[in-house]
Design a protein that fits this description.
single chain, alpha+beta, endopeptidase fold (from Nostoc punctiforme), 6-stranded antiparallel sheet, 3-stranded mixed sheet, 9 strands
Amino acid sequence: MFDPDKYRSVIWLKGGRAYPELDCFGIVNEIRRDLGLTLWPEFAGVTKDENGLDREARGLMSELAKCEPAAGAGIACYSAGMVTHVAIVVDIGGVLYAAECNPKSNVTFTLLSRFERRFVKVEYYQ
């Protein structure tokens, strides 16, 4: 069962991959680990700089299957035709949320419908 309280101590860190210092991709793998899912590549050092997130996310997505929102699914978020953010679907009390990590706000859990409105397009992958 997913425990959102663990993530209240997370601090956003650009390129962060080691709990409790995580960025948007770092939180995806940390939650996948806690859910007992296969971890995705670490992508150490990859950030949005020089389109690194877009490049690596598209490569990973080519190896995954698109899916409907479900707990543990990765979320690719597009702005201006590029993947500019990633998140993961979590189930809290039977309701699906997007778990994400951002500067200043650190980890947040947002209802999927509300989360999707912030981006031009979102896609879900398993």
